[in-house]
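During the no-cost extension, the postdoctoral fellow (Dr. R.K.) reprocessed legacy sequence entries with the updated structure-token encoder. One reprocessed record is reproduced below for audit purposes.
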Amino acid sequence: MFINYEHENHVYNVTVKRRQNQYFIMYDNTEYTVEAEELTPGHLKIKLGDRVIKCVITEGEKDKLVFVAGDVFKVKNVELTGTKTTKKKKEEGDLSSPISGRVVNVKVKKGDKVKKGDILLVIEAMKMEYLIRAPYNGKVEKVNFKEKDLIEIGEITVELTKK
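Re-encoded structure tokens follow.
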């Protein structure tokens, strides 16, 4: 399972695999072995090496909040990419976000005229930047995000009319 979590305005990507009663967590090219036990609903005891961590998890509409030693982590599921899916083929002009991350630069505003290939928006995830480009010549009807906004996979970034 791939998840990302947000803490202090940073988004981190983590891979979690479960084998029997252990979890193998991959972060920043390092694998951690963790044992977890649910004490009561939403209350976990996590063992990482010799360290025991107690945490509380609450569920929101789209994400979960994890409370650990006074810190709050917002955890969101991330759609697995690179696998075969049965979703409909992307249409020309589909300006949905290919990743979850943070908008770091908005290059256009409502009313701007753009040419095919122009950069409309820049999203950062896992220290990489993803450029959202105009799929055709057009006019910007609406920009759905501003700098520093969090964006999820599939959310529409910019709305264009074809010219």
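The chain has two domains: 2-77, 101-162. Residues 45 and 54 are 5 Å apart (CA to CA). The remaining legacy entries will be reprocessed before the final report is submitted.
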